């Protein structure tokens, strides 16, 4: 897939004196400005991966090493924010270079998975209208779609989020099992996480040739060939985690709760074998301190409210049905724990 339209847009930034092995002429007038959008919870590799690629591009022009990209961060405000992190501590503490209000107008915008923030969609729409390049990574595609920049166009995202993306944005033509997609001459979307590195290297190859892109990958010690092949992970490879919980709602009356998680989608059902009830839909509300379950039993809906123990393998609480309550402890079955 050739980015001829992207090359034409960026041609105003480069000189006409190309080397014989370059796809595009080398930069001459000024560096290409790349703005990396950040907001609370931004996934680190989504912006750090492409940043490292663009940062490491070196062009040898008449014996001089030239860095053709000017990189900076942009956020809803210049207040410090935290990236994605671990279960206990927040992620990296970053102070953005600019806010949407005072950022220099970029040539390329990179937006990875993140929470977003006020003014993001409007800023993206303005830059798109000004014919700037949009480059999403992972679920950053959701932000482009929310801004209306992917309607009727092909796009991709992290493979765990395919179904969610399709349901939320039915007008977008989701492409599966690829590393990146060109939605239009101005808009590019990458799959999850390291796909952003591949798309960045692919763009470098289109601008400056495969040799420069390979030299950049070698410097990074990046051995994936996804930027050349565009072969992504198959959606069928999404793992399914299962949990089985059991307890008694009355003496001799056992209830089984089945939880299956595939990617970001979770399905919960329940069985009460002695009452010949099977595969009853269950909805879950979990606020961290309590677990609330609602059982869709025809004509006799039931609910459970319980507190997990410290090991999170038992939930003790109350089962309520037809106005009557009884104690219930759900225990995770050992052979089903992941």
Annotation, overall tally of beta strands: 21
Secondary-structure element order, N to C: HEHEEEEEEEHEHEHEEEHHHEEEEEEEE
Low-confidence stretches: 11-27
Query: For the residues shown, what is the average pLDDT?
Result: 88
Distance between the first and last residues' Cα? 41 Å
Q: Return the structural class.
A: alpha/beta
Physical arrangement of strands within the biggest beta sheet: 14-15-16-17-18-19-20-21
Strand content: 25-35%
Count the DSSP helices: 8
Main β-sheet: number of strands, strand sense, barrel status? 8 strands, antiparallel, barrel
Shape: elongated
Description:
With 338 residues, the chain is α/β, with parallel strands linked by helices. Helices cover 22% and strands 34% of the residues. It has helices at residues 4-10, 44-56, 120-129, 140-146, 162-168, 195-208, 210-220, 226-229, and strands at 32-37, 59-61, 64-66, 69-75, 81-82, 93-94, 98-99, 108-111, 133-136, 154-155, 173-174, 180-184, 187-190, 240-250, 253-262, 265-272, 277-286, 291-295, 302-308, 314-321, 324-332. It has an eight-stranded antiparallel β-barrel with strand order 14-15-16-17-18-19-20-21. It has a seven-stranded mixed beta sheet with strand order 7-4-1-8-9-13-12, sandwiched between helices. A two-stranded antiparallel sheet has the order 2-3. The longest helix has 14 residues, at 195-208. The model is unreliable at 11-27 (pLDDT under 50).
